[in-house]
Amino acid sequence: xxKELSEILTGFQRTLxxxxxxxxxxxxxxxxxxxxxxxxxxxxxVALGKLVDQLAELQEIEFSIALPYIFLIVVVILxxxxxxxxxxxxxxxxxxxxxxxQTVHAIERVLKADIARINAQQIGSLHGRIFRSIQGLxxxxxxxxxxxxxxxxxAIAAMGIAFYQKPTLATIMxxxxxxxxxxxxxxxxxxxxxxxxxxxxxxxxxxxVVEMLGxxxxxxxxxxxxxxxxxxxxxxxxxxKREIKHHISMSLFDALKYLNEGFFYIAxxxxxxxxxxxxxxxxxxxxxxxxxxxxxxxxLREIHRVLDEAHESSIRVNDLYELLDAPLDVSxxxxxxxxxxxxxxxxxxxxxxxxxxxxxxxxxxxxxxxxVKRGEKIGIVGASGGGKSTIAKILLRLVHNYTGxxxxxxxxxxxMTRAEIAERIAYVPQKTYVFSGTIRENIAYGCPRTISExxxxxxxxxxxxxxxxxxxxxxxxxxxxxxxxxLSGGQKQRLAIARLVLASPEILIFDEATSALDNxxxxxxxxxxxxxxxxxxxxxxxxxxTTLKNCDRxxxxxxxxxxxxxxxxxxxxxxxxxxxxxxxxxxxx
Length: 589
What we know:
589 residues, alpha/beta, ABC transporter transmembrane region fold, Rossmann fold, 6-stranded mixed beta sheet, 65% helix
């Protein structure tokens, strides 16, 4: 089978497989309606043929003779259109239900996919692929049950009537089908690969534009608008050349199809006239076979457009299948229930931990071992790329495939579910996630319990942001722009810290979480956090070393290894990397 036709068939099968039982039942009903409508569509042709035969026998034409036929045709048309409305309702209902369900399913799958897999793609390209694939799924449903199958059933009914009337003439008439199909198959084969190339090109434009808009301030500041436009123009021009070549080729094949239909139409009419002259068929049958031939060629005229769009939609459906079949992050794969580690176990126990990213030949963490007691406050410092943030990602089960042992609150990390990690460990990153919505929604984001207005106010005050919320951000109902573009970096970080206050976790991980704050805000927030979470375990990854003065211990990382450990005072007075960092910071200031 032609590869493109095989892909279309696969796409159609996969589309049906994604439908749920109620939708499949509605499609069966819609198919029955289409079959009935196909027969009704051809009844006027039969009626007109009979009417012409009666009129041809009369010397004087009486309008009253035509009335029963006109009445029959009107009733048939009204009934056919009523059935068409019902069919369209069923199909559109299936399409909208499927679009909703698969959109939710696809987004859920992406949110639960391995983060490394997501990070390997341009976000704009991934976004475009998700929604184009769902559009492709919906388009296949509509192409089949709104465009092609109705004309197909009409053609089948027309062939049945033609063979019943005159098999010889019907045989000549249906020869247009294999000839037309051969042209269509050649037409589809000639576009091999072009649909995939066009789709991927559009995804590339999506990725480029989204990436560009994400850095629009940098683009504006560096005056590189022309360079960015040239990137888009280059990809768009390549797509344009491919597409115009495709359309020229398609127009030539369309001309061949119409010539094929014209040749057979002339042959059928000529043969019908000959048969009528020989008395083998009536004069009315000439009109009948003319109309029946047009009913048969209707799907042929549409079949290339349908196959063309169906091929593109099938590629999109295959993309959706690939997306839905992507493996879940291992932290979602099993829900073994909440583990209850023994209370006497340390909060964190790491033994011989090593990890490297698949894109790197060198390990980012090398044979690291440390223990954090419950309620202990640990600082983590080191040069960029030393493994500090990777340790945090491992503890949050954001990256996997490490070697060694990691226990959190007495439980092996690999046995902790996402829900349990979210409940027991809080994470405040340097790059804070805020979303378009209200201040209230952003503070309460991720909180697993119902919270009161008083809880939110307390959290905002503890994060030292309430005064700004009340006086300059529009209160708790004030709007936050996409990515928090109407907030400063410090305001975004304080919103994240307010979330932390609401969460009340057992372990807190701060990854440069106060780096965007001024000294006054940082000191106030640290004091509030220390007061609120006296008994919580804390890991503070910090660039500003003075924030670690109250830590029980500090771990100093270098090239993925712990090279120093001790209190702030001890490390400050001991030759080594920590002292070098202190001297370097003092020189910078």
